[in-house]
Amino acid sequence: MKKFSKYWSIFEITLLNSLAYPGELVGRSLMIIPFMWIFYQLWKVAFSAAGVDAINGLTLQDTLWYLMMTETIELGRPPIARTMSENVKDGSVAYILNKPYDFLWYQFSSAMGETIFRAIMNAIFGGLTVWLLVGAPAHPQGFLVAIPAVLGAWVLHFCINAMIGLSAFVVEDVAAFTWIYQKLAFIFGGMLIPLDFYPQWMQTLAKAMPFSSALYGPARLFVSPTMDLFIGVMSLQMFWIITLVFVLVVAYRRGLTQLTVNGG
Amino acid sequence: MNTLKFLFAIWKTNLQSAMEYRASFLTQVIGMMVNNFIYFAIWIIFFERFKDVRGWGVNDMYVTFGILASAFGIVSLFFGNAFMLSDVINKGRLDYYLSMPKPVLLHTVSSRMISSGMGDFAYGFVSYALSGYFTWDGLARFLLAMLLAATVFAAFLILTQSLAFWFGMMSNFSNLVLNAMLTFGIYPITLFDNYAKLILFTIIPAALMGAVPAEFIRAFTWQTLGQLLLGAFGFLTLAILLFRAGLRRYESGSAIQTEV
Questions:
Q1: Which of A61, A178, B121, B196 stands the most exposed, by the fewest C-beta atoms within 10 Å?
Q2: Other Cβ atoms closer than 10 A to B37
Q3: Nearest beta carbon to residue A46 from set B32, B38, B50
Q4: Percent of chain A having pLDDT more than 90?
């Protein structure tokens, strides 16, 4: 337990740091407002054109709350891959690696510290916007039910982003990989369109990938908080977390042997 | 003529500098094209299900996405520092450009090339070619519309980032309006009511970067050409005037800077 107290301290320090500039925190979170407004315009027209109140169980109201949750998860997560890549490029990785803590635990604690308030602010601004546009969520208890899945989503995001960041040990600039990962998460995670609206074959494919556990799962659980869905989402998420943590640790150990530090 | 020569010299140097890291340059260009392809797939999925958004289909989206990507790409490639102008102002790095016998604004914004812009620029042409609207005279309109949309975009960046002369650090605001510009630019304009459209032609001129150029490419009308010309020259003039007004308030931090 004592071993983890230092990571808890790193988490606390980063958490407090994120509060040091409230203007920055609020300013960054305002971005969700135009996004939710434009989603409302688009989906209002789409539902009206389809002439139905619900598509595969999701009403316009559910769809907007679903999108608020996916945006909160996505906009809340910090750019871990870019940070790691910059650490490698400017040589500061040498100072992190020789400290008495584990590199991956350090990055994880720091990333989670940055995430919490960002996500809360996005949820507040996004939630207020959606509330004004389509009313309260149909199942307000979804907020509580979805919390474990949202935390799991950030762990998954961390694993994938850290793997991209680790590739900086070999290629240094990882920008292209982060763009592609982000767009794959957009599509197969159902970030801009709920997976339920996809053709059946694509739904099956997307739901079997880790991206859906990182975005679609928590957001769907938020709008349909049933016990069956909770068990399904959490089991799949655990499977992906265990798999990706294993791959990440192996990749890190191999990556260390390839690292060349340029300076610092 | 001298200014043009100077611009070409800067662009050549920027390109040579980018080519120093060839693998990184190519990764960014190809990565950005793949990124755009994947992003556009979302619209294909959307229109597969809903077919039409008040008269806009997936083909219209190909043209809109294409022109927006190319205009964004051309600004990133040739005027990449426009994205970081507020940072340059805040950190006192305008000192360097002020000490040179060249137009300050032009020198500043053209001093950086963002390599991934090449991927956006090229992707725009591919997107137009796939739209089903491709014709040779359409391609000529695409080129003209791209230049005018890029002018609007560059002017918009200069306008918003120049506010740093008055308000200091503007990175959050700049990111917010940049994201709003790109997001609103890519969505079908038929979604918006008249009030929203007024905003999209003025405060956040996304319509002049997406919907209007797309309409001009699909079919020539004097009205859309007029809107584009007026928008491009109007916003550019405003941007130059605001930058100049701001420059009068600029205070150097006397920091020693090295421009690479």
A1: B196
A2: 14
A3: B50
A4: 47
Domain ranges of chain A: 2-256
Amino acid at B157: L
Q: Which of B254, B257, B250, B253 is nearest to B164 (CA)?
A: B250
CA distance B53 to A150: 32
A45:B53 CB<8 A: yes
Do B116 and B37 form a contact (C-beta atoms < 8 A)?
Answer: no
Q: How far apart are the first and last CA of chain A?
A: 33
pLDDT tens across B153-193, in order?
999 999 999 999 988 777 767 877 888 898 889 888 888 88
pTM beyond cutoff 0.90: no
The amino acid sitting at B258 is T
What was the pLDDT predicted at B74? 97
Which phi-psi region, left, alpha or beta, contains residue A224 (left: φ > 0; alpha: ψ -120 to 50)?
beta
Contacts 24+ apart (CB under 8 A), B139-144: B141/B216, B141/B217, B141/B220, B142/B66, B142/B67, B142/B70, B142/B217, B144/B216
Instruction: Determine contact, residues A168/A88, Cβ cutoff 8 Å.
Output: yes
